[in-house]
Amino acid sequence: MEKEIYKYKINELNILIGKKVITLAPENILELEFNYDYDKYFFPIIRLSLNTSLDTIYSLRENPDISKVHLEMSYYIYKSEESNFDYEEEFINLTLNTFISDLTPELQRHLNKISREVSNDELNDFQSIIDLYLFDYNTINKTRTIVNEIFSEVNIQTVVSYLFNKANIKNVLASPSSNTNIYNQLIIPPTDSIIDALENVQNMYGIFDTTPTLFFDINKTYFIDKSGKCNANLYGEKTKTTLSISKDDKDDSMVTFTNTNKYAYEINVGINSIFMDSNSIFLDLIRGNKIKCLENETVDDFLPDTNYSNNQVIIKNQYGNKFAINSEKKAIEDNQLILYIALRDYNILSLTPNKEICVRFDDTEYQEAYGGYYRLSSHTYTFNKEGTTFRSSGAIMLLKCKR
Questions:
Q1: Which of 21, 121, 200, 212 is deepest in the core (most CB within 10 A)?
Q2: Are the C-beta atoms of 281 and 263 separated by less than 8 Å?
Q3: Is residue 371 helix, strand or coil?
């Protein structure tokens, strides 16, 4: 199998403070990290570690509301470490708002010391390390949309589309709703957040028979079920990723990568790059792995929405919504087997939450026990500088899907 090594290059890096543009060289970047936790958060956490002048740092700290970062990045495919690149494609082209972490190591102490010793004109001669966190304020602001609606003769798919349109959120990849009922009247209680509005619809009526994944990525929004199947994708986007796990790990520093066909990716990983975990014991003893549902007529008003007793998950089905029960069952099944996989020099775009992910082990025993379909729960990747390019290293968390 032919190896494909992915390296990344910064084409442009600008700090924008109002109308002032500060152009930085790629060498100023120490590290760029993207953290996607699809089951816990709604937005990515992006950290940019820079070595830049104190004058720039002061400007960023004094003007947080008008500070942005513009970043353009491409990836290159190499057939070997010694070869020239065979293919180039744009990876990132974005402008995001910034804030500075108070935990940036030694930054404030360094600033105080330097500011006592030098004049303002000399600040550009001094360098310091700063961590910038990047976020898309426009998208966050759009989610703060007031919703208070009553629909007549409507299905769930129409309601979901209406909510995203009302918030002016574009480029939404949405799974088809599992609930195809037509409602004579559908009420969304007053809320000032589209996130809460969608959660109300799921809890009261049911959108999917799994808990939804709602995630506002940099250039698209995912609103998909947790079935592990790809049922929402862009035109021409590959829908499947196969992770092939070899028996040995002789080449554990390198992930080999290939496009198997126009619809799928394949990543080849050594067995030592995998860590397996199971929450089944935890679920059996503490959270329970059986569901008991109390319907409306038997619900104690003081019973919490979810209660754990005698290895049972007791659910209060307040709205008579069968989808809430199915989603809880699915959540328990997904947590039975977890894979953590370390990767390097791979195509970041091959691992997104809408992909159908198949894990295959060369070892027969491992395949019988752990092989199958998984869904992506989290994905963290970091770009580290190596000469004039950046190399990617990442870690993913996969939850096995019961089919």
A1: 212
A2: no
A3: coil
Asked if pLDDT for residue 263 goes beyond 90, the answer is: no
Contact 189, 146 (CB under 8 A): no
- State the CB neighbour count (10 A cutoff) for residue 23: 10
More confident residue, 208 or 86: 208
Q: Is the pLDDT of residue 317 over 50?
A: yes
CA 378, CA 357: separation in Å to the nearest integer? 13
More confident residue, 398 or 331: 398
Contact 201, 160 (CB under 8 A): yes
More confident residue, 150 or 6: 150
Per DSSP, the residues of 157-172 read HHHHHHHHHHTT--SE
Q: What SS3 class is residue 100? A: strand
Per-residue pLDDT for 149 more than 60?
yes
Q: How confident is the model at residue 113 (pLDDT cuts 50, 70, 90)?
A: very low
Which is more confident, 122 or 337? 337
The closest alpha carbon to 32, from 44, 18, 40, 41, belongs to: 44
CA 329 from centre of chain: 23
DSSP for 252-298 reads: TT--EEEEEETTEEEEEE-GGGEEEE--HHHIIIII-SEEEEE-GGG
Both structure tokens of 110: 């360094």
Question: What would the two tokens of residue 134 be?
Answer: 């990047």
Pairing of the two strands 172-174 and 221-224: parallel
Q: How far apart are CA 191 and CA 203, in angstroms?
A: 14
Exposure on the CB side of residue 83, measured as CA atoms within 13 A: 13
Q: How far apart are CA 116 and CA 111, in angstroms?
A: 9
Q: What is the pLDDT of residues 28-66, one digit of tens each?
A: 888 899 999 999 999 998 999 988 887 888 888 888 889
pLDDT exceeds 70 at position 290: no
| Residue 304 DSSP SS3 | coil
**Predicted structure pTM score:** 0.83
> What residues contact 240, with CB distance under 8 A and at least 6 apart?
230, 263, 264, 265, 355, 356, 357, 358
